[in-house]
Write a structure and sequence with these properties.
This is DNA-binding protein. Keywords: DNA-binding. Pfam families: DUF5753. The chain is 48% helix and 13% strand. The protein is α/β, with parallel strands linked by helices. The protein folds into 2 domains: 73 residues, lambda repressor-like DNA-binding domains (434 Repressor (Amino-terminal Domain)); 188 residues, Endonuclease, Chain A. Strand 5 and strand 6 form a beta hairpin. Helix 1 packs across helix 3 and helix 10 runs antiparallel to helix 12. 28% of the residues are buried. The mean pLDDT is 88.
């Protein structure tokens, strides 16, 4: 792309992109730069630019500011909640902040002891988990959730913007046949493939580790270049985002102790690939 040339916004790509394209149109029609538009708000020009490209959600206070500056009669405030709902389509409302944050994270570290994390799931595995949680749900609703979960994994396809992803998996996940053997082999091979492509760092916590520092709960820890770190923890039908510094530090310490108890990445990869091979041959991994 030539210097100074901006990228067009495809408003048909998604509701956030449609919203962002209209925002850019109204801003340029008013003859204002990004800097002039955010002047007097608590946000920067880069933040507004990312909203225009459909990459960030519009906070209500910024929407009100933009409506006032661009004289758009409350349009952006009225529509910002619709955009937020569209952005989290297929995800629970309490997960919204994670969807926003992980796109801008420098690093993501995760501990999810009872299922493979959503970022690592195949379609078959995600479908089995969603159906087990919502057994009476219509197939169409399940499929929306599955596709939304798979879309998150696009983080691993961007060569320039990929966050460092470090995951600790309990060995029980390799042994629990959530799917038929061939599909379980595909799930494990998918994780191994991400490792081989140098997209993730896995560690397996072996059964033999016994008691460990993170026996209760889950954790997803994210760091950023321009913001304080966040922790997200989840239970069956709810989740909580934590940004209180002392609590974030406590989670960070527990995660580091857990990582010290886990197998190194090379041994973990060997264990994952061995389990996949066992499933391929119709064996229950030992």
């Amino acid at each position: 792309m030539a210097r100074g040339q901006r990228k067009d916004i495809d408003g048909s790509a998604s509701v956030p992109c449609f919203y962002g394209k209209e925002l850019r149109f109204q801003r340029e029609r008013a003859g204002r730069t990004l800097e002039q538009t955010v002047d007097g708000s608590f946000y920067g020009a880069t933040y507004l630019s990312e909203i225009e490209r459909g990459q960030r959600r519009m906070p209500v206070d910024l929407a009100r500011h933009v409506d006032r500056v661009l004289e758009t009669d409350g349009y952006f405030e009225r529509c910002c909640e619709d955009v937020r709902r569209a952005r989290r389509s297929g995800h629970a409302e309490y997960f919204e902040r994670v969807l926003e944050a992980e796109k801008h994270a420098l690093s993501i570290e995760e501990w999810c002891p009872t299922v493979f994390p959503g970022l690592l799931q195949t379609g078959a595995y995600a479908r089995a988990v969603v159906r087990a949680t919502h057994p009476l749900e219509a197939d169409e609703e399940t499929e929306v959730k599955v596709q939304a979960r798979l879309a998150r994994a696009s983080l691993f396809e961007d060569d320039h913007g990929t966050p460092t992803y470090w995951v600790i998996l309990h060995e029980s996940l390799l042994r629990q046949p959530v799917l038929p053997p061939e599909a379980m082999a595909d799930q494990l091979a998918h994780i191994a493939g991400l490792v081989r492509r140098r997209r993730i760092f896995p560690q397996v916590l072996p059964w033999s580790a016994g008691a460990h520092p993170f026996m209760l709960g889950t954790a997803l820890i994210m760091t950023f270049a321009d913001a304080p770190p966040l922790v997200y923890t989840e239970s069956l039908h709810t989740g909580h985002t934590i940004d209180e510094p002392a609590l974030v530090t406590a989670y960070r310490k527990s995660y580091d102790l857990l990582r010290a108890a886990a197998l190194p990445p090379e041994a973990s990869l060997a264990l994952i690939e061995s389990a996949a091979e066992d499933y391929r041959h119709g064996k229950q991994p030992r």
